[in-house]
Design brief:
This protein has five helices and nine strands; from the N terminus they run ααββββαβββααββ. The radius of gyration is 26 Å and the shape is elongated. The relative contact order is 0.11.
Length: about 250
Amino acid sequence: MKTIPLLMGNVTLAIFAATLAGCSPSPETAAESTLRQKIESESTSGIILLGFKKTDGQKMEFAGIQGYKLDYEAEIQFKTAGVWVSHSKLISERLDFVFAPGQRVNTTAFGALSRSMNGAMNVNAGDKVKFVGSMAGEKKESGWHFEASESRTTSAPVAGTLSPPTTKSEYVAAQEREHCIDNLLFINTGKVIWASKTKQFNGTPTWADLLPFVIRGTNTQPLTQPLVCPSGGIYTIGSLDEKPQCSIPGHSL
């Protein structure tokens, strides 16, 4: 009769072990979680992982250590407009997710050189990018652990993959929005300079106040007239604690 409790204990232990095994994340799930955390951390939650799919995998074992190489394809989306620094060619081809919301890279020759070195590109809210890569993982007692630094792109994302306009009118609208956002950045910078020069940190400047301090692009000459939204929107300068606004939806920092 003593064998029955022992048998029941063995059955219970087997069921418990099977349950734990069933709850252990698969290599694909663990790799996706690692990539998601990397994206959210580097972009300060400005970029989200929309999709992740394993395209191939290979189990490895060396000196009793289980490993796994996982190839994947994924898609990300930007919550707001800003600058995405996708990689640094001077260091490696690793895909990075450094994101600066509300910023824009200029279109000068220097800006083009900078973009070629670090992959910096202007993106807008809702833009998406697809990419592929691979990650290496190790099986530990707590489950699979992947290193995000092992992720490498096999096709670098380019500006053309960021939801490109499909018609002439959409292209013009996209260009005008880009121009307008640049104007808002110039206005915002002008407000900071104005406050610093005049010591009016609690005031709300007018266009007459800002004209001497708004520097547009490489033109170091002060403005002689207010900036104008190319789509006909109306600008609201606002106080120092507020971002300048355009009346057209989508034209915002």
